[in-house]
Amino acid sequence: MERYSASGAPARPDGMAQGGRDLTEDQLAGLIEAIGAERSQEAFRDLFRHCAPRIKAYAMKAGVDAGMAEEIAQESMIAIWRKAATFDRTRASAMSWIFTVARNKRIDLWRRESRPELEPDDPALAAPAPLSPDAEREAGERQRLIRRAVDGLPAEQAEVVQKAYFEDKSHSAISAELGLPLGTIKSRVRLALTRLRVAMEGLQA
Amino acid sequence: MIRHHPASELVLDYAAGALAEPVALAVASHAWLCPVCRDEVARMEDLGGVLLQEIEPAAMSEAALQRTLAELSGPEPETPRAAAMPDDETAALIPPPLRRYLGGSLADLRWRWKGRGMRETPLALSLRGYRASLFRLRPGGMPPSHRHLGNEYTLVLDGSFSEDGEVYVPGDFAHADSSCTHVQRADPERGCLCLAVLDAPVRLTGGLARLVNPFLRF
Fold it and tell me: Which end of chain B has fewer CB within 10 Å, C or N?
C-alpha cells in the first residue's frame, strides 16, 4: 500500500479540485514521497489538485496573466514529478518545498532570469541541512507556528511580507511604490521577521 | 569566522524570489558559506509555504491535469551535463551557486587591470542596470575612494579587506549604499578576491580617480 494513502489522504472524486486546506502537511509529504519512490500517477493527481490552483493564484498575484500563470503551475508540477525523489521531509516541509519550485518557475518563465540556488542539482554540492533547533521540529508543527505568527502580524507588516512574496517586489521597490522611506520598510520587515522568529522558537511574542 | 551578513530584508527578498539575479547571486553565495543565513533562508521559505497553502486557489482549466499527465510520460529533458570539474583552487574558493557564472576555473579567467593593483573579470550575467564581477586586489591594494549612486554588494572569497576599522574575511558580506564613501584596503599579505555586484554607477570622490574608475563605462 502506498504510504500516502496509509497516512489517510482522502480518496476524492474527480472535480473536487478547489478550496480549503484539504490536505495536511503529512499527507502532502506522503504524496511527494509516493511520486518519488513509486512514480505514482494517482499521488500526482491528488497533489496536482491541491497545488496547481494555488500555484496559479500565486503567479497571478505577481501580475502574470491567467494563461501564463497556468503554464507556470503546470511546469511547476512537472518539475515536482521529476524532482520528487530529492524531497526530504527532514529538511523541508512539503509546502515550503513546493513553494521553492513554484517561485523558481515564476522567475524562470515570467521574469526570464535564472535563480542562483542554494541547493544545486548535483547532490554532492548540497549544503548541509540547517542546524538550528527549530529545523528539527516536526514540519507540521512548524507550519502551525508560522501560520499563527502570520495571522497575528499588524497590517503594515503583513503588507510588506505579502508584497515581497506575492508581488515580486523587493523592499526597495515596495518603498518606491508606497512612497515611504526605505528605512520604514526595512523596519517593518525586521519587526515581522522578529515576530516570526519568536513564534518559531515557541515563545510568547 | 563570518561576522558580516546581508540585512534580513535582503535575505527575505532572496527567499521570496524578489531579488534581481545578480543580487540574488551575492546573497546565495554568502548563504552557502554561512549556516546562520542558510537557516534564515529555510525559515523564510517555510513562510512562503504557509502563504502558498493559505492562498485563495485559482481554478485550472479543465484539460490542465490531462495535459500535464501526458507530459509526464514524455522523455525527460537531458540533465545539463555537469560543468567540467573546477580545479582545486576554484573548488576551495568559489561557492557552488557562483561557479556556473565563472564559466571555468579561476586560473582560466581573463583579468583586466583596473589600476591601483586591482583586476576585474566580469561574470557571465548580463542584466540591464547591474554589473557583477570578480575583483582581485593585490596585497595592500586600495581601490580609489568612491561613492555609489546605488548599491554595492561585496562578498569576500579569499584574503580580506578592511574598511573603517572592520575587517571583512571570506564569507563576509558588505553592503554599501549612496550614503557611504568607501576607503578600503586589501590584506597586506594575501590581498583580496571578492565578488562585487553594483546596481548603479559609482561617483568618484578622488581627484584622479576618474582615470581608473572601473565602472565609468557602466
Answer: N
Chains A, B: CB contacts within 8 A come to 194
The span from the CA of B33 to the CA of B173, in Å, is 11
The shortest C-alpha distance from A128 to chain B (Å) reads: 8
Nearest residue to A132 (alpha-carbon basis) of A202, A27, A204, A29: A202
B16 contact residues in A (CB cutoff 8 A): 103, 164-165, 168
Q: What is the DSSP string of B56-90?
A: ---PPPTTHHHHHHHHHTSPPPPPPPPPPPPPHHH
List the single residue in B with minimal CA-CA distance to A45.
Answer: B65
Set of cell numbers at residue B174: 558588505
- The number of residues in chain B equals 218
A113–B68 C-beta distance less than 8 A: no
Compute the nearest-CA separation of A170 from chain B (Å).
5
Give the burial string for B117-152 (b: 16+ CB within 10 Å, else e). Answer: bbbbeebebeeeebbbbbbbbbeebbbbebebebbb
Q: Across the interface, do A121 and B7 touch by the CB < 8 Å criterion?
A: no
Q: What is the ipTM of this complex?
A: 0.86
From B13's Cα to the closest Cα of chain A, the distance in A is 6
pLDDT tens-digit readout, B117-174: 899 999 988 788 899 999 999 999 888 777 777 899 999 999 999 998 899 999 999 9
| pLDDT tens for each residue of A156-200 | 999 999 999 999 899 989 999 999 999 999 999 999 999 988 887
